[in-house]
Amino acid sequence: MEGLVNITAQSDIYPEYQDSPIGRLLEYHNLARPMDEYTHPHLLAGTCMDHRVSLRMPEKFSYVIRTGGANLRNNEFQVSFAITVGGIRHIALIGHSQCGMVGLHSKRQTFVDGLVQTTGWKEELAADHFQNFAPLFEIANEAGFVLTEADRLRLKYPGILVAPMIYLVEDHRLYLLEADRRH
User: Fold this and answer.
1) Residues 6+ apart with CB under 8 A from 9
2) Full DSSP string of 11-79
3) Which domains does the chain have, with CATH numbers?
4) pLDDT tens digit sequence for 99-116
5) Which pTM does this prediction carry?
6) pLDDT band at 183, cuts 50/70/90?
């Protein structure tokens, strides 16, 4: 995956993220920062539901929303809740490599067959289910989607710092995106 910024030292974290919950997440996860104790969350981490994504961070540090492809479009009430009731001012939007939502339409038959065989759904109902929801969740590529989604969230929630990131399942590290340096 091109355009990733490897965080191997605190100085690699973009200045706007340093000394913030976003910077601390990168320090906890990539730099083995000792775990601080928290009594309430300071961050909202939006990431994929994929079982291979495992974030290293302290208890009570972050709200976490897991959804296919880190797509928060259908979770805006939860995002708004974290901001308004939870007092969150920082969002880490974390896509990952090898995401199953990339090329979702190529998985149509597997999806339909799985619903039919596992749940007993009729094939027509399973196919309709896929057709109705796949367009909402399919992404072209992980980095491009997380950048676009971060821009959408920035417009929807001005004043909230949104950091798009990629989690590489190959090495279990978080990366910033070179293309995000413009923000």
Assistant:
1) 31
2) GGS-TTTTTSHHHHHHHHHHH-PPPPP-SS--EEEEE---TT------TTSEEEEE-GGG--GGGHHHH
3) 4-102+140-182 (3.40.1050.10), 103-138 (no CATH)
4) 999 999 999 999 999 999
5) 0.94
6) low
